Amino acid sequence: MTWTPLHAKIQRTIHRRHLFERDQRLLVAVSGGQDSLCLIKLLLDLQPKWAWNLAIAHCDHCWREDSQANADHVENLARNWHIPFYLEMANEPVNSEATARNWRYHALTKIAQTHHYQYVITGHTASDRAETLLYNLIRGTGADGLQALTWQRPLTDHIILVRPLLEITRSQTEQFCHDFNLPIWEDSTNQNLQYPRNRIRQELIPYLKVNFHSQVETNLAQTAELLQAEVEYLEQTAHHWRLEASVKGEKQDLQLNRQILKTLPLALQRRVMRQVLQKILPESPNFEHIEKLVALITAPNRSQTDPFPGGVTAIVQGDWICMIDR
Ligand SMILES: Nc1ncnc2c1ncn2[C@@H]1O[C@H](COP(=O)(O)OP(=O)(O)OP(=O)(O)O)[C@@H](O)[C@H]1O
């Protein structure tokens, strides 16, 4: 087996970030594209050192003419590598990017549950991270959207999604596939410039590279990495203050102490209120909902908000903001 700098890098990343341990069951999500091929080859090469149980999962969205051929291609690779292959097919064509992503994570979780895999692993790269950061920045988002693609996130109580390639760029995975003659399945929809994602990848990033900074992808990915740690810290601190400001027991999150909240910086006031609203509203709170609740921290006695979705209204009663379900 040829050992390359990318093998060394991924091995270091797995150790340093404690992504997996020895002897674990890893389900690798392989589309057939260059990133996931690079991922599975690296994991197969590291497998003897770690004694993992590897398998490949492929999701057929049934939205391209070559979907079936793509799935067969990935299945053949799994057969050649002597590892199990699991296929999930969409019942009806999944035709928007967001629905496709949701369906895919659902399908991967189902395979992992059925076959007892602790980890689902995807080939997201630093380039994906840079693109996600730009995409969310353009759409308008707080720091939470800019932290863009975390190293790990739970899919269920027992299954974790892991993205070990977040420090590797798409040009590196391309070079790796080329060096090892890995048969990439070219996804024709990646060329479709109707999708904003593809325009970011094919037009915006190359423009930024030529006109602003040749390492723009790595720089943006590092920004996402820094923001991730900051968001985590702020969320934990906000959680602490939510518990401090809220009455204990059954009415937790329904009565909040204004004297405590007043001492906090605005960034934490907003996060506390967002966490409270996430607990009590039937849907995700938006910017306006959070601002209305923050305004009550300093508003005159008996001020109140319009009803939030689900019918709850917030009202000031002396030192307290009370949530009232009318
Ligand atoms: N149809 C699929 N089946 C299984 N896994 C998939 C599929 N599509 C995407 N993934 C997983 O999600 C990751 C990111 O998806 P994305 O759509 O950005 O990748 P892609 O461009 O289709 O393919 P690749 O990342 O393999 O080059 C992939 O690296 C792969 O691990």
From TrEMBL:
List each copy of the tRNA(Ile)-lysidine/2-thiocytidine synthase N-terminal domain by range.
26-203
Kind of enzyme, top EC level? ligase
User: Which GO terms label this protein's molecular function in UniProt?
Assistant: tRNA(Ile)-lysidine synthase activity
Where does it localize?
Cytoplasm
- One Pfam family cited in the UniProt record for this chain: TilS
Give all residue intervals belonging to the tRNA(Ile)-lysidine synthase substrate-binding domain. Answer: 256-309
What NCBIfam families has UniProt attached to this entry? Answer: lysidine_TilS_N
**Protein function:** Ligates lysine onto the cytidine present at position 34 of the AUA codon-specific tRNA(Ile) that contains the anticodon CAU, in an ATP-dependent manner. Cytidine is converted to lysidine, thus changing the amino acid specificity of the tRNA from methionine to isoleucine.
What is the name listed in the Swiss-Prot or TrEMBL entry for this protein? tRNA(Ile)-lysidine synthase
